[in-house]
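FORM 7B: Structural annotation worksheet

SECTION A. Query
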Amino acid sequence: MKYNIIVPLDGSALAAAALPYAETIARALKAQITLVTAAEPEPHPQEMPAASVDRALDEAESLLDGERLRLEASGLKVRTIADVADPATLISEVAQQGNAGLIVMGTHGRSGPSRWALGSVAERVLRRSHVPILFLTPMAIERTRPSTLHRLVLVPHDGSETSERIFSVLQLLASVLQAPIHLLRAVDPAAYYTVVGLAPYSQPSSDVAQDALRAAAEQLAAVAERWHLAGLTVDSSVDLDEPRHLIIRTASEGGVGWIAMSSHGRKGLTGLVLGSTALAVMRHSPVPILIAPPASIPQPEEKEPAEDEPIAVVTPIA
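SECTION B. Predicted structure
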């Protein structure tokens, strides 16, 4: 299977630091890497606009060519794309038109009048991407190495169909990286107490909390068993905590190589709105985080429920 990994670069050290992680995945998958940069012309006095565009493109191509030669010398297949365009639009279009399977990028880069700010670019790419994205925060780059991708994958799972869709991504990546999976379920006190008729953040009896944890553990164990039968190495745990706090805390405790999660989305007046949990974890993750946005995974066909068929309602974590 042909697999293409997109790596955006902007000339900053933080953007380039994501490249070794892409190399690790590319070697495991025998995949191609596509390096992308958006040139930003800076007109000079007495210079024609076309000349400033040509100069910006030459600089962008020179940046990519240096990395291309290094990667090719190490045995990887590489292509480069430089264009004068909005960075988020260019990255998204290259990924879609190039049949990409993954984008790997830093979440912050050099910012200023002549450089992109990869923090905002990353979030805009995530909102429009049809491809899963592996993000690296400055903290993740400082605390991890590309080899940590072979370590434990932390996978938040809330029992919904959206959470389950990350399976198709992990079935490939976790397998080739030989990374075991830990499924994590957060039982949010505020959400659960409301369901059982208690005031949010009130002090329930220990029986109420234990019943919630027991039910969540049973559901998650069933998911772990299905994934195990599909050939993945999986275990699971649940805890009573707000989801984003539990995910970041668990990832910070050590042993976790990266996080992988689906992001919920919804249509509204402003279009696709990504889940607040996914964005919060993306911004503060101490390890690399792979997010599969709604558009990146085929949606199951919807069917009209029969008149006597109950409609299930779930409270998503992301």
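SECTION C. Observations
The radius of gyration is 21 Å. The chain has two domains: 4-43+51-136, 147-167+177-293.

SECTION D. Sign-off
Analyst initials: ____
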